[in-house]
Structures are given as structure tokens and as C-alpha cells.
């Protein structure tokens, strides 16, 4: 260590809940004070700026004694985690992993646990020889010991923030890949080794793409990814040693539908530039890490899968921001109640949307040149939002204070009332825009005017709360689309009628406006034109619009025709996207028509789990025996993946033998699903199991409640779980079966675990 600037005779380190055995300098003891949080060491003399010294600390970390709490994003904060350490749980491997963000690395080693600190590191990890290890940097050496253990020496010579330190241990297979000459490794459990490259295999291409757009070649010596059981977040960008939660694991039947973890993989990869190479100077400025990682998901999708795919993802992230209680939060927050509160839909989702607006305002070339300037100027150091602004200003010569002041250092977004005045004599249309939110925003704004089914795009700049723009036309415009490119983060209120939405659905050129129109048109399918518009949208070029049309089309209204059903059958069999096929099969399943049996039968042979699950439900209503027979032959791992449709079948079939299977998914279905139908399905399942005589089902339900109660304690799931278990006890007491006393005892033991 060395003093930063001012001379000092003390060192204060973060060290949480440790046993401090001794503190030495040059083998001489140093006096210290320790309060379970801060270790304050008295140095033997005053040290001046740039005078280096080395301190030796012998300590024992006690993560289970740590008192700090996690957040909604990172549900625990004890730093070091042992998974199934005794090996008693035969269904779970023994693993060790760490989680440092925000300030939890100091739960397993003394440090200055702040994002504005940068340090190199070395770590020696001694493990039984059957385990592999992973840490930051390079595995320099492995030494076999005489007692059946091995010591691995990992060395990280570059500097990064303490929250990015990582240690992982487990029985993993290492699947090797490369980016140029840089090792890219995937640490997975043996079961998933054959699919590791299907899950993570785009990583080398991501590193190349991000190197290209940033103008900074991937700056580290390796890129490894490991999957940890019971992980306390989605993933973490530890430098060169990214950890993912179990959701990363997917089977071929899921991957054929979509790799649901790919956004997370790209997110953590881009952090190696924004977050690790240049780090937020403080948690107040977290967004200079997370907004870029969030926006990388858009950038990667745009590059790999096309703009419409990326736009759909952006809209979903914006909806995530809007649906939270986020409107009054600044992007950069210097006064927060808790640093953990920074990990929200503003720092991530809104931040990504703001970067999208900035990119569109500056243009791609200038935007990427600005990224390069920011990264180059602050490499291996820290930065804040003002330095980001200065980088863009240096590159473009533009004054961007107005943009940063309203988007980074203020809250909310524009709420716009839009109206139109047509002057047929002058052949002009005037678009009136009134901002109804408290803060005044300035922004570029795109407007499409449609004549003869062709659009003319106008880009204007709104500089006040009340603005009007007038454009000429040759023929009366059929439709006007404001925020036509979908770039502005805003809410728009305008008086549209059904014919406007039908036109918008047919002619809009981006996902946001198509989806908005489809939702509104679907409400009015008694109107033949509306029904036909939904039917036509089933052939849209973008698969998510096709899915939405299939999910919303009403086949029991008076406009439903055989030709539309025939079209859905064709989609169910031949659409290139399995998720679209699944949506078509689900829609056909609502008809309970025996003539559709061949469609469901074909779906039962699909490699896609989405298609298989929907086909089972569809088949159940036309041939129960065949559907049940098929469900009983499925491997347990497949049944877990398609648990929702199977639960629906087994509940309707009143299949007592399958209650134990259903029980393991009740908490996830009732409380972790966002879908109300799924929530209702598992509420019904809970009610049935709670009064059941099936002891195995009761035990599985209790285990599931305890597991989720502990895992999501931050959300008060432990209290929810205790209440659910008490209700089970009450229902068992009222039940008339011989196993009720045994069942009650099982539930009471589970309750005691949650109440500890």
C-alpha cells in the first residue's frame, strides 16, 4: 500500500465479521482496533505520499456472521458461499463461489472495499484434487500436496476494483474455446457439457464485436464463465471470471426455441470494458457501468439478429423501467438511502434507453468514437457521468450539458399530449406537442406523415413544453406516426380511433408501434376489419408480432373463418420459429376440435419443449389417454422444464400420483411468474396439495417453500412461506385421512427452519 496524497500513520480496511489473529509489518506486530466492520491499523511511523509498505494480516473469514443485507438485484451480501458443503444433498453438487458487488469482498478478505480502488491480486486455493478452481487472471501453477489436495495459484497482474475479485470451486468440466489467441472457457456441470457451446458459444464473437465498436481490443488475458448453484443474482462480471446463475443451464429442447440467457452473456461481456476496464467512481455513478452493459444487449442483438429484434428487446426493458416505481429517481443519484437501491430499472433499463437516444442524436460514428475516447482516457481507472459527457463533447464539439442535465442528473421522461390540425385549403398539417411532466425536456423527435400508403419522415427538435410543427401535404394524410423511430423514451397520449390502429398495425415500420396497435386492435375483433388485421399480422415478418397476433386472435367471434384456422394450422406445422409454432398450437388447442389431433400429434414429436408442452395440452382436450400416456414417458428433466402444461393436465385429470411432481414448482408458479394464468394455476395446485393425503407431495411443497423462503428472504418470502405453511397445517387438521399427523409434523419442521 501507499498513501494516496496526504501523509498518514493509520490504515483503515474493510473487514466484516472476521477473526483477526495478528497484524504484522516486517514480522513485527502492529496495534489495531477492530469493530467487526473496520480494521484500523496503527503504522509504526508516518508514511508520506508514494512511500510503499506491506502489511501482513492473519485472519479467518466468517461469512455466516456477516450482518449486511443484500438487495433486490443481489439477494445476499456475505461474500463467500459454500453450496452443499457436507455433500448430504445428493441432488446438488458441492461448490464454493464468491459474490463481491457491492461491498461484500471484504467479507472474505480485508481490503478497501470501494469501486474507486484498483488493485492487482494473487490467490492460492487449496482444494481436494477432484475439484477445479477458477479465479481472475492466469492459472500460473498447480501443486499437488501429500494429503490428497492440490493448491492452485491464480495471478492477476492488471488492476481492477475489489468487488470484481472472484473465487470458484466445484466439480466442473471445462469446455475450451478461444477468441483470437485468448482462452475462452466454459465451466459447467458434466450434464451440461455437451450443450455448453450452444449456451455460451457466441462469446468469442461478442468479444470481437465489442472490441470493434469500442475501438479497444479485449483488454484481459482470458475470458472464463462458470455456473454456480444457488447463486444470489443473475450473473456477475468478475474480471475474466464471470459467474452465472443456474438459469444459464438450458437443454437442447429449450435452446432450439431461444437461448434465454444470451442477453445476460452479452451484458457481462461488455462489462469488461464498461465496469472493469473503466469503473464507476462511486455507486452514485453506477449507471456508467450498468447502462452500457444494458445497452450492449441491444447492440449485440442488432448486430446478430437485426434491428427489429433489438427494438423489441429495448421496448421490453423500457417497460421494465416504466412498470417500476422509478419516475422520480435520477439516473445519477448522489443522495441515496442505500447503495443497494442503485441496482434498479433506472441505472440499468432507463440508462440503456438514454444511451440509445444519445447514439441516435450523435450518429453511430461519433457515438462509438466517444466510447473510445472515454475508455482510452480512463483506462484501468475510474470515471463518472461528467467524464462520459466530456468524452463525447471532445469528439463531437457539441455542448451536451442539456442532454446530461435532463437525462443523467434529473428524473422522469416526457409525457406528451399530441394533437393534429389539418388545413385543407393550405394543404398543411400541424402537429401540436404539449409536455405534461414537471421537468421540461429538449429532444429530437421523428414524425412520419403517410400519403398513399407511403411515409415521409420529418425530424424536428422540441425545445419547450408547448411546441408545434407544420408540414405540407399533397393529399390528405391517411395517418401520422409520432416518435416514428421509437427512439425517444416517453409516454404519448393522442386520440386514435380503431381505423388509426388498424392502419398503424399494417404500416408501422418498428416493433413498438406494431405491438401498440395490435393490442388495441385485438380489443375490437367483433369489427371484421379489426379481425382481419389481426389475422394478417399472423404473417408478419417479425416472429414476436406473429406470436402476439396468435395469442390475441379471437376464434370464437362471428368473424372467425375456416380459412383463418387453416392458416393457423399451417403456421403450427411450418413456421420457421418454434415459439411461433407453439403459440399457434396453443391457439388451436382452445378450439378442442378432434380434427386438429394430427397437428397436436406432430407437435408431440417436436424437439422443441415449447411445442411439446403446448401440444400435450392441446391433445389432452381431444385425446386424454394419448396425452397422459405421452406425459408419463417423458424424462424427469423434460417434465421439470414443461411443468406448467403438465400441471394443468394433472390437476384437471385429478392425478394424485403427480402431486409430488407439481409440488416442487408451486412457489415459483405462484410468486415468481409474471403471468396471471400461471399464478392462478399454481394457487389451485397449492390448495389441492395443502389438504392432500400425499405425504411426498406435502414434503416437496414444504421443501420448495423453505428453499424459496430462504433464497428470496429479501422480498419477505420467508414470511410468505410461514403463512403458507400455517395454512397447510390448518387444512391438514380438517382433513379426514390417516397421514395428516405425519404431514403436519413435516410442515412444522419446515416452519421452524424458516423461523430460525
Question: Would you mind describing this structure in some detail?
Answer:
The chain has 756 residues and is α+β, with helices and mostly antiparallel strands. It has 27 helices and 27 strands. A five-stranded mixed β-sheet has the order 14-15-16-18-17. A hairpin with a 4-residue loop joins strand 21 and strand 22.
Alpha carbon gap, first and last residue? 42 Å
Helix tally equals: 27
Largest sheet descriptor: 5 strands, mixed
Rg over CA atoms, rounded to whole Å, is 29 Å
Helical coverage, percent range: 40-55%
Number of strands: 27
Query: Which structural category fits the helices and strands?
Result: alpha+beta
> How much beta, percentage-wise?
15-25%
Short key terms for the protein model shown above:
single chain; alpha+beta; 27 strands; globular
List the helices and strands and how they pair.
Elements: E1 8-14, E2 19-25, E3 28-29, E4 32-34, E5 38-47, E6 56-60, E7 80-83, E8 95-98, E9 119-128, E10 132-135, E11 138-144, E12 149-160, E13 167-170, E14 173-179, E15 182-188, H1 196-200, H2 203-214, E16 223-227, E17 235-236, E18 241-244, H3 252-255, H4 262-270, E19 278-280, H5 287-305, H6 307-323, H7 346-362, H8 364-377, E20 381-383, H9 385-396, H10 401-407, E21 415-423, E22 428-435, E23 443-451, E24 454-462, E25 466-472, E26 479-482, E27 491-493, H11 498-507, H12 511-522, H13 528-537, H14 543-552, H15 562-574, H16 578-589, H17 597-603, H18 609-620, H19 624-632, H20 636-641, H21 643-653, H22 659-663, H23 666-672, H24 676-690, H25 695-711, H26 717-734, H27 740-755
Parallel strand pairs: 15-16, 16-18, 19-20, 21-27
Antiparallel strand pairs: 1-5, 2-3, 2-6, 4-5, 7-8, 8-13, 9-12, 10-13, 11-12, 14-15, 17-18, 21-22, 22-25, 23-24, 23-26
Amino acid at each position: 500500500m501507499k498513501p494516496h496524497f496526504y501523509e498518514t500513520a493509520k490504515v483503515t480496511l474493510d473487514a466484516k465479521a472476521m477473526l483477526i489473529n495478528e497484524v504484522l509489518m516486517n514480522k513485527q506486530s502492529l496495534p489495531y482496533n477492530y469493530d467487526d466492520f473496520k480494521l484500523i491499523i496503527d503504522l509504526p511511523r508516518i508514511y508520506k505520499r508514494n512511500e510503499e509498505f506491506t502489511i501482513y494480516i492473519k485472519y479467518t473469514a466468517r461469512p455466516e456472521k456477516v450482518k449486511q443485507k443484500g438487495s433486490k438485484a443481489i439477494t445476499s451480501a456475505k461474500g463467500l458461499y459454500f453450496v452443499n458443503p457436507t455433500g448430504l444433498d445428493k441432488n446438488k453438487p458441492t461448490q464454493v463461489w464468491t459474490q463481491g458487488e457491492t461491498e461484500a469482498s471484504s467479507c472474505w478478505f480485508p481490503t478497501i472495499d470501494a469501486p474507486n480502488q484498483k488493485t492487482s491480486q494473487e490467490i492460492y486455493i487449496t482444494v481436494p484434487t477432484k475439484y477445479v478452481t477458477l479465479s481472475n487472471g492466469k492459472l500460473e501453477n498447480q501443486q499437488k500436496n501429500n494429503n490428497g489436495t492440490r493448491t492452485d495459484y491464480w495471478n492477476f497482474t492488471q488492476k481492477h476494483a475489489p468487488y470484481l475479485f472472484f473465487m470458484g470451486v466445484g466439480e466442473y468440466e471445462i469446455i475450451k474455446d478461444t477468441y483470437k489467441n485468448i482462452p475462452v472457457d466454459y465451466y459447467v456441470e458434466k450434464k451440461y457439457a455437451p450443450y455448453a457451446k450452444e449456451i455460451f458459444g457466441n462469446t468469442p464473437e461478442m468479444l470481437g464485436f465489442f472490441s470493434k465498436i469500442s475501438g479497444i481490443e479485449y483488454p484481459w488475458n482470458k475470458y472464463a464463465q462458470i455456473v454456480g448453484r444457488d447463486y444470489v443474482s443473475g450473473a456477475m462480471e468478475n474480471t475474466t471470471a464471470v459467474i452465472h446463475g443456474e438459469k444459464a443451464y438450458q437443454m437442447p429442447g429449450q435452446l432450439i426455441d431461444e437461448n434465454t440467457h444470451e442477453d445476460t452473456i452479452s451484458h457481462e461481456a461488455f462489462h469488461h470494458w464498461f465496469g472493469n476496464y473503466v469503473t464507476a467512481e462511486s455507486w452514485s455513478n453506477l449507471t456508467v457501468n450498468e447502462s452500457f452493459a444494458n445497452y450492449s444487449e441491444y447492440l449485440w442483438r442488432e448486430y446478430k439478429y437485426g434491428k427489429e429484434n433489438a427494438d423489441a428487446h429495448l421496448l421490453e426493458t423500457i417497460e421494465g423501467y416504466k412498470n417500476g416505481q422509478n419516475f422520480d429517481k435520477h439516473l445519477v443519484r448522489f443522495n441515496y438511502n442505500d447503495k443497494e437501491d442503485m441496482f434498479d430499472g433506472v441505472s440499468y433499463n432507463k440508462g440503456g434507453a438514454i444511451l440509445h437516444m444519445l447514439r441516435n442524436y450523435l450518429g453511430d460514428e461519433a457515438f462509438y468514437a466517444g466510447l473510445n475516447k472515454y475508455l482510452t482516457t480512463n483506462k484501468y481507472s475510474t470515471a463518472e457521468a461528467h467524464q462520459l459527457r466530456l468524452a463525447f463533447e471532445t469528439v463531437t464539439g457539441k455542448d451536451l450539458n442539456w442532454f446530461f442535465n435532463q437525462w443523467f442528473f434529473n428524473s422522469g421522461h416526457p409525457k406528451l399530449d399530441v394533437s393534429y390540425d389539418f388545413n385543407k385549403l393550405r394543404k398543411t398539417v400541424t402537429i401540436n406537442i404539449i409536455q405534461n411532466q414537471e421537468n421540461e425536456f429538449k429532444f429530437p423527435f421523428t414524425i412520419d406523415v403517410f400519403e398513399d400508403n407511403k411515409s415521409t419522415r420529418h425530424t424536428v427538435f422540441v425545445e419547450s413544453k408547448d411546441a408545434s410543427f407544420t408540414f405540407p401535404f399533397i393529399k390528405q394524410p391517411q395517418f401520422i406516426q409520432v416518435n416514428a423511430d421509437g427512439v425517444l423514451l416517453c409516454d404519448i397520449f393522442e386520440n386514435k380511433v380503431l381505423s388509426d390502429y388498424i392502419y398503424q398495425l399494417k404500416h408501422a415500420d418498428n416493433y413498438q408501434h406494431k405491438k401498440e396497435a395490435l393490442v388495441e386492435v385485438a380489443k375490437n375483433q367483433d369489427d371484421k376489419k379489426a379481425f382481419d388485421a389481426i389475422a394478417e399480422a399472423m404473417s408478419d415478418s417479425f416472429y414476436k408480432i406473429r406470436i402476439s397476433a396468435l395469442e390475441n386472435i379471437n376464434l370464437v367471434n362471428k368473424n372467425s373463418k375456416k380459412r383463418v384456422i387453416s392458416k393457423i394450422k399451417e403456421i403450427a406445422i411450418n413456421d420457421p420459429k418454434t415459439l411461433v409454432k407453439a403459440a399457434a398450437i396453443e391457439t388451436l388447442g382452445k378450439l378442442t376440435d378432434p380434427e386438429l389431433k394430427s397437428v397436436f400429434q406432430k407437435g408431440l414429436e417436436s424437439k422443441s419443449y415449447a411445442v411439446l408442452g403446448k401440444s400435450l395440452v392441446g391433445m389432452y382436450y381431444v385425446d386424454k389417454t394419448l396425452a397422459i400416456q405421452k406425459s408419463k414417458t417423458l424424462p424427469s428433466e423434460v417434465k421439470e422444464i414443461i411443468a406448467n402444461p403438465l400441471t394443468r393436465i394433472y390437476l384437471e385429470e385429478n392425478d394424485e400420483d403427480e402431486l409430488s411432481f407439481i409440488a416442487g414448482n408451486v412457489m415459483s408458479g405462484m410468486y415468481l411468474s409474471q403471468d396471471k394464468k400461471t399464478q392462478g394455476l399454481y394457487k389451485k395446485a397449492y390448495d389441492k396439495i395443502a389438504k392432500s393425503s400425499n405425504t411426498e407431495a406435502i414434503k416437496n411443497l414444504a421443501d420448495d417453500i423453505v428453499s424459496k423462503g430462504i433464497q428470496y428472504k429479501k422480498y419477505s418470502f420467508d414470511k410468505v412461506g410461514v403463512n403458507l405453511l400455517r395454512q397447510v397445517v390448518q387444512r391438514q387438521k380438517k382433513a379426514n385421512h390417516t397421514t395428516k399427523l405425519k404431514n403436519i409434523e413435516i410442515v412444522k419442521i419446515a416452519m421452524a427452519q424458516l423461523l430460525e
